């Protein structure tokens, strides 16, 4: 029996890294038999031809994120769920850029495009490798649920870190650049599908998101919550939009006729597909109680415009058809949109036609990508305060680095991240940059009160471990298994110097591949897997040791064959336990640590505290007293702020924040360090505004690092020592600790963000300092009057009057000279990040279109208008640092 030509050619093409999702490249005969493989027809016609061959049950299954294969039609399994917020996430090795809020702080649109293009290169390469390996699961596809363009209206929201900040214009510009970088520039095939989420009024509280009904004024809706979505649809041509969990004006955001039919498709002309947030369709009947049954919820969502569900409620669509709740023709329309999207990604075409299919797997984490991550991290750092202490001198003898996020990889990553090859913590970055300066370190305190903090105890260093009695190596012998119970032959055996790993969604093989220690296809799965480490422990001194292990999920620890710790059960987070043991110097103890991961995040640590070690707080003060300068690195991590968390700590609830200050543990240590009389630099990690009033009043320098990605530590070290000149700007307002905020669940914009906040902020939107100085001169417009549908050119001269080169973010704001009720105080309408050498002067030019820049939603008319009257352009270094003004007038037609 002969093998059809398509079967013979596909493996060869796959070997050349040219695979796409189905790899059933059509011959002429195949195209005749299967018209959906005929590349001479449009994607829409081909998709319709394919859908016409499906049963109702098959169609419904294809409308769920985990779409099964239809073998008789040559349709492979496909999972639509993938993440790429600041790098390919949850799919193993990938370059990790600064978290989205940090990327926004760069105020650098071209850089955002470079970052997104790099992410899409890695995503394409990874997808084709997965297909070559016969994998079609979650986090292995080409449809990515990023970016998050919700407005970060309230600093308490734990997911604000995922956004581009509080301003609609900045969000739109960054979002459009990100979408274009993901989706590519090919006129025929999409590189990836980007997804604008979560349409549209969605920014906390996390605990209420499944039953909350947001009812903003129509003016706030159209002037604040919608513009970025509109820009991504009209300018970015985004292929997908994700609905939110909550209701908007009584309708589920994932089944809203107003949002999805009337606005998205009719008013904006959206041609792509809509996906629900995960299990949002369940909420329609279970929590919102808009309808009574699963079938009614599924039918309502599809009829109102959600073609794809993340979840399983759409499995009831055949029953909904039989009940008369929805027609099969409506389902056909939805499934056709979905298959047209897959075809537009090249999944059903010969690979030689798809340019993106030629990206080799080796592109992942190449040095150029690491260099771009470093550039992005440098540009994201915001110098909040500097009384002249920075940059630090290398004539210093000793620097004390103190704080709970200084040596914590999680402080680099935020949430929705991949596995970086060699992440550089802030402590390591400072040590690398310090060169001849002695750097000592003490953690000092836990991140927050009441948290079982595995990172509080130092890892056992390689010098005190050996894989076997006669081995010259240091560390423990690790056996990595494809199974959860340590059964079968190990897929990989190696020596690990220390046991301290965090894998996003579980990806041990890729973490090792990233170091060059294992190649593709060695078969340690994302979930589940297990590892056994064995060897000897060599205590340096005699006395009582505290040995601790921590893991997500199960772990067991044995010393001299005795099981001293046993937590062989699943866990929803990294949990730790310890044992006190009397150990003798000069003796070798047999040591064995067993670990398994069941699903989702994975991590494991083996740590100890030696005899005579001082309490961490006292240890921190001791090294501070012996130092010339103290660098305190603290703030937040994705372990305490994020998406719908189940564990609460003082100052946090469900992933949101109830206190904008630093956690109490950190405040106490920071004040004690200041009391030593040594100068203290505060470096903050986190994804949201922090009320550091005390530090602003008492410390000489404060640097905001966000979650700066895999090279964040390098960027911080370089900046502290002046090898890099900071120029990041705040994409959110930093409020004072005593500022009374509007109710968290009130979506009214008055009193929020720099546009509507009437008080004095701690640090204004757009704020950021430099190691040099910039001067603004000669603001001018090309006309004093402009029509609403006209164009206005604004120019200003900017000079670097300092002694070193640096970047300046030139920001243009517009405000009406006579504000009406509900008008914002001013609005960002242009920005450019420019590099100027010492003494260099440049003319910066902005183009304003009043029809976009000055439009206001008129609730009485139900439409946008451009109010005629007198306005002012304001140009400067932040919303509170305006250096140049120029008036103009908008005239009525």
UniProtKB/TrEMBL annotation:
Q: Gene3D superfamilies of this UniProt entry?
A: Glycoside hydrolase family 3 C-terminal domain, Glycoside hydrolase, family 3, N-terminal domain, Immunoglobulins
Family recorded in the similarity comment: Belongs to the glycosyl hydrolase 3 family.
| A Pfam family | Fn3-like
UniProtKB keywords: Hydrolase, Signal
Q: Which organism is it from?
A: Pseudoxanthomonas japonensis
Q: Please list the residue ranges annotated as the PA14 domain.
A: 471-624
SMART domains membership: Fn3_like, PA14
Q: What is this protein called?
A: Glucan 1,4-alpha-glucosidase
At the top level, the lineage of the source is: Bacteria
SUPFAM superfamilies assigned: (Trans)glycosidases, Anthrax protective antigen, Beta-D-glucan exohydrolase, C-terminal domain
PROSITE patterns registered for this protein in UniProt: PA14
């Amino acid at each position: 029996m002969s093998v059809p030509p398509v079967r013979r050619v596909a493996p060869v093409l796959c070997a050349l890294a040219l695979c796409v999702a189905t790899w059933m490249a059509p011959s002429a005969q195949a195209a005749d038999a299967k018209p959906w493989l005929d590349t001479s027809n449009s994607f829409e016609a081909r998709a319709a031809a394919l859908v016409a061959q499906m049963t109702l049950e098959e169609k419904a299954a294809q409308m769920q994120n985990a779409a099964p294969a239809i073998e008789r039609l040559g349709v492979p399994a496909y999972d639509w769920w993938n993440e790429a917020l600041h790098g390919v996430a949850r799919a193993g090795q990938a370059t990790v850029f600064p978290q989205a809020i940090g990327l926004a702080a760069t105020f650098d649109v071209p850089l955002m495009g470079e970052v997104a293009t790099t992410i899409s290169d890695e995503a394409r390469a990874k997808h084709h490798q997965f297909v070559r390996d016969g994998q079609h699961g979650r986090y292995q596809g080409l449809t990515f649920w990023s970016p998050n363009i919700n407005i970060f209206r309230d600093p308490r929201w734990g997911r604000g870190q995922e956004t581009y900040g509080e301003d609609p214009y900045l969000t739109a510009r960054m979002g459009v650049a990100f979408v274009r970088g993901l989706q590519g520039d090919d006129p025929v095939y999409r590189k990836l599908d980007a997804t604008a989420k979560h349409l549209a009024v969605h920014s906390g509280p996390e605990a209420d998101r499944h039953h909350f009904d947001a009812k903003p004024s129509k003016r706030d809706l159209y002037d604040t919550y919608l513009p970025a979505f509109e820009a991504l649809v009209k300018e970015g041509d985004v292929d997908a939009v994700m609905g939110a969990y909550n209701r908007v004006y009584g309708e589920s955001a994932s089944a809203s006729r107003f949002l999805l039919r009337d606005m998205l498709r009719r008013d904006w002309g959206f041609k792509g597909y809509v996906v629900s947030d995960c299990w949002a369709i369940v909420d329609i009947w279970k929590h919102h109680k808009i309808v009574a049954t699963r079938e009614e919820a599924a039918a309502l969502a599809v009829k109102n415009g959600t073609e794809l569900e993340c979840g399983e409620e759409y499995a009831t669509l055949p029953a909904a058809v039989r009940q008369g709740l929805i027609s099969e023709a409506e389902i056909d329309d939805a499934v056709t949109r979905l298959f047209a999207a897959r075809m537009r990604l090249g999944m059903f075409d010969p690979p030689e036609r798809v340019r993106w299919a030629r990206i080799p797997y080796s592109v992942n984490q190449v040095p150029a990508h690491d260099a771009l991550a470093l550039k992005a991290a440098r540009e994201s750092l915001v110098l909040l305060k500097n009384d002249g202490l920075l940059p630090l001198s290398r004539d210093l003898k000793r620097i004390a680095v103190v704080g709970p996020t200084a040596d914590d990889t999680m402080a680099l990553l935020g949430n929705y991240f991949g596995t970086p090859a060699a992440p550089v913590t802030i402590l390591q970055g400072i040590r690398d940059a310090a060169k001849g300066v002695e750097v000592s370190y003490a953690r000092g305190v836990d991140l927050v009160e009441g948290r079982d903090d595995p990172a509080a105890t130092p890892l056992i260093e390689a010098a005190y471990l050996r894989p076997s009695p006669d081995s010259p190596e240091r560390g423990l012998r690790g056996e990595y298994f494809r199974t959860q119970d340590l059964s079968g032959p190990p897929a990989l055996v190696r020596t690990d110097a220390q046991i301290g790993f965090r894998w996003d969604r579980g990806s041990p093989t890729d973490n090792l591949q990233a170091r060059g220690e294992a190649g593709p296809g060695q078969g340690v799965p994302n979930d589940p897997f297990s590892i056994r480490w064995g060897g000897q422990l060599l205590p340096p001194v005699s006395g009582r040791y505290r040995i601790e292990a921590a893991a997500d999920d199960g772990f067991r620890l044995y010393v001299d064959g005795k099981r001293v710790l046993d937590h062989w059960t699943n866990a929803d987070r990294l949990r730790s336990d310890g044992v006190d043991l009397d150990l003798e110097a000069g003796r070798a103890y047999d040591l064995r640590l067993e670990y398994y991961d069941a699903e989702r995040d994975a991590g494991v640590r083996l740590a100890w505290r030696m005899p005579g070690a001082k309490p961490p707080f006292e240890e921190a003060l001791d090294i501070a007293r012996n130092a010339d300068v103290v660098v305190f690195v603290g703030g937040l991590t994705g372990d305490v702020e994020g998406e719908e968390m189940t564990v609460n700590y003082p100052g946090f609830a469900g992933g949101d924040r109830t206190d904008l200050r630093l956690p109490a543990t950190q405040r106490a240590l920071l004040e004690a360090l200041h009391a030593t009389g040594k100068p203290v630099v505060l470096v903050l990690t986190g994804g949201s505004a922090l009320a550091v009033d005390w530090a602003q009043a008492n410390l000489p320098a404060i640097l905001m690092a966000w979650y700066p990605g895999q090279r964040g530590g390098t960027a911080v070290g370089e900046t502290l020592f002046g090898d890099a000149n900071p120029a990041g700007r705040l994409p959110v307002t930093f409020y004072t600790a005593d500022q009374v905020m509007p109710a968290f669940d009130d979506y009214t914009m008055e009193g929020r963000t720099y546009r509507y906040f009437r008080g004095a902020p701690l640090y204004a939107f757009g704020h950021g300092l430099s190691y040099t100085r910039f001067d603004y001169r000669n603001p001018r417009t090309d006309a004093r009057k402009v029509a609403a549908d006209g164009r206005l050119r604004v120019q200003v001269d900017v000079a670097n009057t300092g002694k070193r080169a640096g970047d300046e973010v030139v920001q243009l704001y517009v405000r009406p000279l006579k504000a009406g009720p509900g008008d914002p105080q001013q609005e960002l309408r242009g920005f450019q990040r420019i590099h100027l050498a010492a003494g260099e002067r440049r003319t910066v030019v902005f183009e304003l279109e009043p029809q976009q820049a000055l439009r206001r939603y008129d609730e009485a008319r139900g439409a946008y208008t451009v109010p005629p009257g007198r306005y002012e352009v304001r140009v400067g270094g932040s919303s509170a640092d305006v250096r140049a003004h120029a008036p103009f007038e908008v005239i009525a037609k």
